[in-house]
Description:
Largest sheet: 5 strands, parallel
Mean pLDDT: 89
Distance between the termini: 49 Å
Number of domains: 2
Amino acid sequence: xxxxxxxxxxxxxxxxxxxxxxxxxxxxxxxxxxxxxxxxxxxxxxxxxxxxxxxxxxxxxxxxxxxxxxxxxxxxxxxxxxxxxxxxxxxxxxxxxxxxxxxxxxxxxxxxxxxxxxxxxxxxxxxxxxxxxxxxxxxxxxxxxxxxxxxxxxxxxxxxxxxxxxxxxxxxxxxxxxxxxxxxxxxxxxxxxxxxxxxxxxxxxxxxxxxxxxxxxxxxxxxxxxxxxxxx
Length: 232
C-alpha cells in the first residue's frame, strides 16, 4: 500500500532525505543523489573502450573479456563520500542505486551486453557478520537488475579471513588473497559470461584472485566491473 503524499511530506519535514554526495536536502522527485551531484559524478566511460586504465591493470595477469569502473575515485571527492556512506554508514541504497545506473550503461556496451551472471567479490562470513552486509552484494544487485542478469552471491566464496589490503603493496595484496576463494557449484557457471563486481579497484589483486579461480571453469567468459577506480 502506497503512503499518502502528505504523510511523506510531513515525515520528510522532520527527517529530511539528504543527498549522499553533498548532504543537501533532496527534492521529492530525487532519490539518493541530488540532480546536481548526479550530473557532476566523475564517470569514467571506460565501458565504451576495450583498452582503458582498468583493463590494462590486468594485462598479463589474468585473461578477461573486458574490465571497467563506473567512477573515478579521488580523496575528498563525491565518489569517496558515496563509498564511505555505503561501506561505513549503512547507506545500502547507495550501492543499489549506483549499481542500477552503472548497469544501464553496461547494457548498452557491446563488451558487456551478453553478461548472464553477476557475481560480487565475496566477503568472509566473519567480516560480513561484523559489518552486517557486503557492499559489493548491493552494487551487484543493482547492476543485475538493470542488465536483467542472474545474480549469484553464494557460489564464489571467501574461505580465509584475510587482513586489510589498504596499506599493502601490489605484491603483498596478491599474496594476501591468492588462495582464499572457492566455487561451490561450477556447473552453474559453465559456458556463461559472468561479471565480477567489486566496490573499488586499486591494484586489482582481489579481482585477479577471483578471476584466476573462476577461469578454470569450462566455457566461462569473465568480465570485471567496479563502482570506483582509484589510481595508484
